[in-house]
Amino acid sequence: MTTNQSTSDGTNGPESGPDEAGASDRIVEQFENIRRTRRRRALGWFGLLGFIVFATIQAFAATELLDPDARIGTFLDSLNEFFPITFYFDVIPFLDFGQYIEFIRQANLLYDPEIGGLLFQWPPSATDAYAFFFTELGIFQIFGEAGITLAMGFVGTVVGFPFALVFGTLGSGRVTPFPFNFIFRGTMSFIRAVPAIVWTLIFIPFLGLGPASAALAIAFDTIGNLGRLFVDELEEIEEGPVEAMRTTGANKPQIVFFGMLSQVRTAFIAWTLYVLEINVRIAVTVGVIGAGGLGFIVTSQQNLLQFTNMMATLISIFLLIISVELFSQRLRSRLRADDVEMGIWELITGFPRRMADSALK
């Protein structure tokens, strides 16, 4: 009984001494392990950082950016060809936007007056309005070269969406059992492995070099990219509604349509709108190789060394892309019930106020 009591100097009995010593040794050993682990991690991070720096230098050398003959300085000296400067009163420099606007108007980059004249005239003509909508089919053509670019991205999205929906649904393990679902996943992976610009080159022998081959190439690219997004959404659905339908005796198609796709309908629409934005950008890219639209204007002006006109085309591309994103954002926001609906005019005029509110948060 006396062995468990404390001694007069406040220490425990002789039986508890070895236990305390062992516990102290274990604590010290744990601290040492922590220190060694931290040192190894620090050395690992330093090693990784050193490798990244070494690889970066190698990459700069491979891309000839370390070449003393690189034309970075020449490019800086040539900025006036992209950004024409006008001196007012021979003193104050201003960027001459008039040259940009003039080329945009002459090349019909954003508006085709011949097509638009059928619609915008006074007094209005019912015959010309009918011709605009049903004979000239001018809804996209009224926007000139930008309309061709927009049409390529739109057609690619519309044509590719149903195939992406089928491949994305059947590629999910919740719908098609393994390994049969990998037939559809593998097909989408193969499509994604080939860039849209290469698909355009593939379709040129069939449809020629123009917007038709570009639109079909974008449609193929949509199948691979949008289908993969659909697969990921279906893999994350809740199992409760699916199990509830199984208990009611629903068959497989009913489970897929009403138990699975109903859960991801909003996400599917949002992803489709997002891919539409991407496809319009891709339409600019494939236009560079001669498929038409704003991309073709960029490369043609670059070949003519008309860099001011090239910059005007880039401004038109920016206006097109930002307009598509604005339209897509408004549609996606209306799909979300927690967002306050906002009109286009309010969205544009209220932008400075929203930026200020965000900065003060």
Structure description:
With 361 residues, the protein is mainly alpha-helical. It has two domains: 26-70; 143-360, MetI-like (MetI-like fold). It has 18 helices and two strands. The protein has helices spanning 17-62, 72-77, 79-82, 97-106, 113-116, 126-135, 138-141, 144-170, 181-193, 196-207, 211-235, 239-247, 252-261, 265-291, 294-303, 307-335, 344-349, 351-360, and strands at residues 85-88, 92-95. Strands 1-2 form a two-stranded antiparallel ribbon. Strand 1 (85-88) and strand 2 form a beta hairpin. Helix 8 crosses helix 14, helix 9 (181-193) packs across helix 11 and helix 14 (265-291) runs antiparallel to helix 16 (307-335). It is extended and about 105 Å long. 26% of the residues are buried.
Keywords:
disordered N terminus, Phosphonate ABC transporter, permease protein PhnE, extended, 2 strands, transmembrane, 361 residues, two-stranded antiparallel sheet, mainly alpha, membrane, single chain, transmembrane helix, MetI-like fold, 2% strand, 18 helices, 2 domains, PhnE/PtxC
